[in-house]
Write a structure and sequence with these properties.
This is Protein N-terminal glutamine amidohydrolase. It holds the Pfam family Nt_Gln_amidase. The chain is of the alpha+beta class. It has helices at 18-28, 92-99, 117-123, 159-163, 177-185, and strands at residues 33-40, 46-48, 61-63, 66-72, 77-80, 90-91, 111-116, 173-175. The protein has a domain at 18-121 and 166-185: Protein N-terminal glutamine amidohydrolase, alpha beta roll (C8orf32 fold). It is 21% helix and 19% strand. A hairpin with a 4-residue loop joins strand 4 (66-72) and strand 5. It is globular.
């Protein structure tokens, strides 16, 4: 089994800004085969177990969306999730078994938008408006660095296009839990 790179000690992390955390992590693994994966559904209510924010280990966290990184090596796929209880990286099979239940209620079932990291770097832009409350304040304090803006989409906000699980959106491929697990376990 190929050993993946460790989570860098200098990795940038801001609570509740998973897409930005993963953006910078993927940048640090630029020479590897990586994919940015948005997890959501049409209701924006996905149940994910094995998360640090859970009230107890047997209760999932229900996110509107979550973002993880997949790094593929010669014979394994590894997940990096800053918000998981287990240290990253973790084998995809182990992560999936701990984090997702196949028989969850339909309103909480996860879909996965898999985006090659290079495409993500070229296209992703967020003005962080999805974190602003009706009163104009942030629901969670934003990072101190500027919002991520791709050269191709500078000044725009594409968060909805990436979080959406509508397969008509042009960024990556949307997969079911089963399809994502099969894709992650495959090589080539």
């Amino acid at each position: 089994m190929s050993i993946p790179p460790a989570l860098p000690e200098t990795a940038i992390y801001t609570s509740c800004y998973c897409e930005e955390n993963i953006y910078f992590l993927a940048k640090s693994f630029i020479d590897h085969e990586t994919y940015v994966v948005f997890v959501s559904n049409e209701n924006k209510t996905v149940a994910i177990w094995n998360q640090k924010r859970a009230r107890s280990p047997d209760i999932p966290v229900v996110w509107d969306y979550h973002v993880i990184l997949v790094l593929k090596t010669a014979n394994s796929s590894w997940i990096y999730d800053f918000d998981a209880v287990n240290a990253s990286p973790i084998l995809l099979e182990e992560y999936m078994g701990r984090s997702f239940l196949p028989d969850v209620l339909p309103a909480f079932r996860c879909l996965f938008r898999v985006v090659p990291s290079r495409l993500f770097f070229e296209t992703f832009s967020s003005d962080r408006s999805h974190m602003i409350c009706p009163d104009g304040t942030y629901s969670v304090t934003p990072p101190t660095y500027p919002a991520i803006q791709s050269v191709a989409h500078s000044g725009s906000n594409l968060m909805d296009a990436f979080v959406s699980m509508d397969s008509d959106k042009p960024y990556g491929e949307v997969m079911s839990l089963e399809a994502f697990t099969t894709w992650g376990e495959s090589r080539g």
